[in-house]
Amino acid sequence: MKAITLRQTLMATLISGASLMAVLPTTALAYDVNSTAALNVDAKGVAVQGYDVVAYHTAGAPTKGSADFMAKHEGATYHFSSAANRDMFTANPAKYVPAFGGFCAMGVALEKKLDGDPTAWKLVDGKLHLNVNKDVQKKWLEDVPGNVKNAQMTWPKIKAKAPKDL
């Protein structure tokens, strides 16, 4: 019974977060509810809303990237804050790409593909995890190992599905 209650609480949190996302300007979102891609990219193919995925590891903070420093990897374009960060990425992209294609890690744990907010992040075992918003991130942080494990088990089943179909 406790697991059902926790799942219901988490789903309510995600739904409220998704409701908030619905009222934000669509230009702020990378999220496409019709896409069956395993990567969360905007209409131009840019991942992580243009944030520098290397900077999470080196600066320890979300840092907006620039189209002046970009690299493509597995169908996505990544922006970086410097040529050095771009070069670090191209030398080892698997180290820097976000978990679950940049979708919300908690959403994936609950069998949903929600947009990832670049400012709601955490490195777990050297891997970047994003959440849909900071309220959802608070719940996710309550059991990071359990949520990561659930998301890892769920991801193969949902990664090729459109968010609207989940």
Flag low-confidence runs.
16-29
General shape: globular
* Main sheet attributes: strand count, strand direction, barrel closure: 2 strands, antiparallel
Q: What is the residue-averaged pLDDT?
A: 87
Helical amount among residues, as a percent range? 40-55%
Q: N- to C-terminal separation?
A: 24 Å
Task: Tally the beta strands.
Answer: 4
Structural class: alpha+beta
How many domains? The number is 1
Order of helices and strands: HHEEHHHEEHH
Radius of gyration: 15 Å
Q: Strands across the major sheet, in which order? A: 1-2
Strand content: 15-25%
Number of helical segments with 4 or more residues: 7
Give a nutshell description of this structure:
The protein is an alpha+beta fold and 166 residues long.
Q: How would you characterize the overall build of this protein?
A:
The protein has 166 residues and is of the alpha+beta class. The chain has one domain. 40% of the residues lie in helices and 16% in strands. It has seven helices and four strands; from the N terminus they run ααββαααββαα. A hairpin with a 2-residue loop joins strand 1 and strand 2 (76-80). The model is unreliable at 16-29 (pLDDT under 50). Residues 1-30 form the signal peptide. This is YHS domain-containing protein. One of its GO terms (molecular function) is oxidoreductase activity. Residues 54-99 form the YHS domain.
